């Protein structure tokens, strides 16, 4: 059995390609730094979480961590995603850890402060 | 006329108080650092963006920046929020700048990488 540990960066998904592009850009630094990390979507876009897990299981992987690229826990993370994960664990006989959404980590709040300060600075520069 | 510039940190809103608490925590570093910044909700929670703007206008403010605490542009930021902003601008005779969502700034992707690395490190520590 492979020791490979797949890290799924889970975004909501949308039929709008621009929406998915934003998540691909958000995930790019992680994908460049963390081995076996990949973006997947909960719904409305590909690759789906289910297809990523099924393909990895075929290649012998049995450990997964799902990192939700969500700011907070709503219905999807309270109910839909845990149900999808339970179903995949039963179907494939694997362990899938669901991490808290990235927005619950204080580092996001620090980054938001930097973004707000940068935005205000550039809008003031634009007015002067 | 006041020169005060109100910075509205706009979250989606939810009837779940825990959801709103997450956004209050996310906003806390910004609120501590940026004068006249405040959290408001698009729907389902208080304070609403409309009530923040109406109260500030009564106090003589006429400049606002809305910073969406969203990771990407979906229907809300493409359609609903611009419509709400147009209506408030007409009603109050003020200028409201709508900034891009925080998730479009590369600093969020860097923070997400740090969160993922921290999460994986602590889960490995938990297993050893």
Question: How would you describe this structure in keywords?
Answer:
homodimer; about 130 residues; alpha/beta
Elements of chain A, N to C (H/E):
EHEHEHEH
Query: How would you characterize the largest beta sheet of chain A?
Result: 4 strands, parallel
CATH class of chain A: Alpha Beta
Secondary structure class of chain A reads: alpha/beta
Number of helices of chain A: 4
Summarize the amount of helix of chain A as a percent range: 40-55%
Poorly predicted residue ranges of chain A: none
Question: Strand tally of chain A, please?
Answer: 4
For the record, the count of structural domains of chain A works out to 1
Give the rounded overall mean pLDDT of chain A.
Answer: 94
Tell me the fraction of residues in β-strands of chain A, as a range.
15-25%
Describe the structure.
Two copies of one chain form a homodimer. Chain A has 128 residues and is of the alpha/beta class. The first copy, chain A, has one domain: Rossmann fold, CATH 3.40.50.1400. Chain A is 52% helix and 17% strand. Chain A has four helices and four strands, in the order βαβαβαβα. Chain A has helices at 17-33, 49-58, 75-92, 106-127; strands spanning 5-11, 37-41, 63-68, 95-98. Chain A has a four-stranded parallel beta sheet with strand order 2-1-3-4, sandwiched between helices. In chain A, β3, α3 and β4 form a beta-alpha-beta unit. The first copy, chain A, is elongated and about 60 Å long. Chains A and B meet through β1, α1 and α4 of A and β1, α1 and α4 of B.
